[in-house]
């Protein structure tokens, strides 16, 4: 019996029994009489038994039809209740949103922005996952992720948030001890702090690149920032992440005339035709707010 997977057939059957005729059911459903008769016959065929006895004078429901009618009424009531709940959610946005972001960005940029979002949408619950590891949106149940650089996964939609200018910097104490590098090749002789899990990496500039063997390897952006401030080496950081330290003299830009390749910060989510309304409003909110932030940052760089 696979008729109970035929929701349209169940609705036709329920209306015919409740209203007592095919004609009345057709009018109620906005269908032609022929379409209702055919849909009912198909439903009976899928169920595997005759549910309604037809004659020229009246319809009568079979014993099997009476039993099935009671169950179908309950099923359709549950479906209607579920549909009503979805309509209410769209009117008053609610539910949970799981967001992941790199640790530094989450702490410094996302949290202040989300406070305003929470005021505007008080019934949406936020679950924040701050980590410098790239999370799998499907496996980790992530609704929205904020990521650096290129996004090769075609399952994802990417919306640009920030341009993300990057610079090299070190503490005044480090530079006093080891000197200022003047060329890309000079970097190979310096102590460099590398983000990730491998000591060998490549720092790419607009006009060249250099192979780096990390003196310290660190998988956390905040920790690498702190290591640089403690005088342990040269680090590559986003300008917005170290701007205050540069202004206060705790860090100094290294090779300021050589521009690094940008690594745009993007907001990504799974490609879907039926994106939940709460995800849509978050995406549009963050894109708008970060665009304002990007204009201010670009103007001050």
Short description:
By secondary structure, this protein is α/β, with parallel strands linked by helices. The protein is 44% helix and 23% strand.
Notes on the structure:
One of its GO terms (molecular function) is DNA-binding transcription factor activity. Keywords: Coiled coil, DNA-binding, Transcription, Transcription regulation. InterPro entries: LysR-type_TF_proteobact-type (IPR058163), LysR_HTH_N (IPR000847), LysR_subst-bd (IPR005119), WH-like_DNA-bd_sf (IPR036388), WH_DNA-bd_sf (IPR036390). By secondary structure, the protein is an alpha/beta fold. It folds into 3 domains: 3-91, Orthogonal Bundle (Arc Repressor Mutant, subunit A); 95-164 and 264-300, D-Maltodextrin-Binding Protein, domain 2 (3-Layer(aba) Sandwich), CATH 3.40.190; 166-254, 3-Layer(aba) Sandwich (D-Maltodextrin-Binding Protein, domain 2), CATH 3.40.190.290. It contains 9 helices and 14 strands. It has helices at 7-19, 22-29, 33-47, 63-91, 103-120, 172-178, 221-229, 239-248, 277-300, and strands at 52-54, 59-61, 95-101, 124-130, 144-148, 156-162, 166-170, 192-195, 200-205, 208-213, 216-218, 234-238, 252-254, 265-270. The protein is rod-shaped. The mean pLDDT is 87.
